[in-house]
Amino acid sequence: MPLGLNVHVGARMVRSAAFRLAVIQALMFALMALTLFLVSWFAARHYIENQLRQTIIDEFGEVIAHPPAQRAASIQRSLAQVPRGAYDYSLFDARRTLVVGDIREEPAVGWSTIEQHEGLRSGKDAVRRILVYGAAQDDGSTLVVGRDLASVDELDALLKRVFTWAGLAAVVLALAGGMVTARGYLRRVEAIAAAASRIAAGDLAARVSITGRGDEFDRLAVSLNSMLERIQTLVEGLRQVSNDIAHDLRTPLTHMRQRLEAAMDEATSLEGYSNACERALADVDSVLDTFAAMLRIAKVESRQQREGFTDIDLSQLLARLVDDYGPVLEDEERVLSAEIQPSVNVRGDALLLTQMFVNLLENALHHTPIGTPVTLKLVAAEQGCQVVMQDAGPGIPAQERTRVLKRFVRLDASRSTRGSGLGLALVAAVADLHDIVLTLGDAGPGLRVQLDFPHRQDA
């Protein structure tokens, strides 16, 4: 990768939210490490000093146990030991004059820390820090016992080095982890941005890749892909609308124009003009009906009507439709039979659901031969309810069952039969609005329409 590109990618990672979060975490960790160091340092130092104080007190007790006349000799023997002992001693008389010992200046009574110069060592002035305990005796003398603090100072230095390196390592690891995390986040975000750019450029089939990890990016990708599929469907529908309108409305408009031209050329009486106008009005009504159906579908697809959903007794709704459409189908020499389970409730828009079932009944009425039986069945299920409507007509070929749910699609290529090709499109739109699974199948022979309603959610 070129150096310039590496710098650019690195700059983007540094500016990313994931890297900033890693920096904050590193700082927090450093603060925690510092706090832990201070607590550990104070605890360790306090413990060691207490141990030193206790050993000094014990040694002081051993020295003070000697008679006053023998204390100087005892101190002298201790200082003359080879190797030298760990303690420092001094005995000062009542005039504060050093009698014997290696602590040259009398410290204050009680506990104190003194610094004692030991002369030049390796060209430097050597200084010892000594923790001392001094107490006045009954004869006016002062006994001082101390111990070098070199071990405590070494522990301080060791703890500082350990925690410094550990803290630096933790900060570096946190920053490195932030870089790795930021790189991964940046890669996923760029994949989403690339898909969005392709979509903005007109590639509506572009989708965000899913890794299968089930993380937040996968959940976002699933939601975005669902939205993109919806957008693609709507955009493709919009692209097709103009062609559909031109194709399906051209015929009635052409007929209307021809009739009006014929009336202008041939009509010689008021009755002739009146008949021509009536036929033209019928063509206009057909066009207006088509536009009204398109507007209904658009309104349903906008999903705005979900706000008006109420509890509906689906059993009663279907029973009323059977009562209303049973005689209509009988007049057209078809037989409607129904099997409706009582007290089946759903949630939705009663008018739209009624329109959906009316369209299915009229579809069976208009696209089946005389004498065709039509059946309607409603059954409750554990996860909702199911409505099945089927007939023994010609049915719909399997390869056409998805296409007929789109607007202006008709199996009659010549378009000589009644209808605008919007009936099943409205059925599909209403089903989608209510989250109903719509399935077109084979009734063997005939068409089988299955509607699986979702489980009813109480308001």
Strand content: 15-25%
The fold-level CATH name of one domain is Heat Shock Protein 90
Given this structure, which CATH class of one domain is correct? Alpha Beta
Q: Distance between termini?
A: 58 Å
Give the strand order of the largest sheet, numbering strands 1, 2, ... along the chain. Answer: 2-1-5-4-3
Helix amount, in percent?
55-70%
Q: What's the rounded overall pLDDT mean?
A: 79
Query: What's the total number of strands?
Result: 12
The radius of gyration is 48 Å
Q: Can you say what the CATH homologous superfamily of one domain is?
A: Histidine kinase-like ATPase, C-terminal domain
> Which residue ranges are poorly predicted, with pLDDT under 50 across at least 5 consecutive positions?
1-5
What's the shape? Answer: rod-shaped
Structural class by helix and strand composition: alpha+beta
SSE order in H/E notation? HHHEEEEEHHHEHEEHEEHEE
Pfam families: HAMP, HATPase_c
GO molecular function: kinase activity
Keywords: Kinase, Membrane, Phosphoprotein, Transferase, Transmembrane, Transmembrane helix, Two-component regulatory system
Protein name: histidine kinase
Describe this structure in words.
The chain is α+β, with helices and mostly antiparallel strands. Among the domains are: 216-301, Helix Hairpins; 306-453, 2-Layer Sandwich (Heat Shock Protein 90). Helices cover 55% and strands 19% of the residues. It contains 9 helices and 12 strands. β3 and β4 form a beta hairpin. The chain is rod-shaped. The two termini are 58 Å apart.
